[in-house]
Amino acid sequence: MKKVGYFEGTDSTLLATLAVEGIDTLPLGNGEDGYGKYIGHITKGDNISLVVGYLHKVVPLAEMGTKPSDILYSCTIHKIPVVLLAPKQLHEKAKRVLGDIAEKVKLVDPKDALEEIMNILK
Predict the structure, then answer these.
(1) Among candidate residues 49, 65, 54, 58, the one with its CA nearest the CA of residue 30
(2) Distance from the CA of 40 to the CA of which of 26, 33, 67, 94 falls in 20 to 30 A?
(3) Which residues, 6 or more positions from 42, have their beta carbon under 8 angstroms from its beta carbon?
(4) Which domains does the chain have, with CATH numbers?
(5) pTM of the model
């Protein structure tokens, strides 16, 4: 069974569609929002096939002194694909904001999220 971890604010229609397709969903938090399981604590045992959420959920506040790659570190070490949602016209700017993690995540326009997620999960 596939399982998608998702950040707060992920479209409920997307999550409902995944559920009816037999894909489990697990809420994840970024460490500041108090939502779901803290992403930094996910392990291989959580059996997460993919993580999805809006770009802003992995962009820390300036005063935090961390980077998006710090927030997504557990995904990197466990080789969990990450889909970050942002309007297509912002993808180039988003890559600069993501810095060293930009090449390890998939930026997707929200309207294309379901198709991209299903392609990755195949």
Answers:
(1) 58
(2) 94
(3) 5, 28, 48, 74, 75, 78, 80
(4) 3-121 (3.40.50)
(5) 0.95
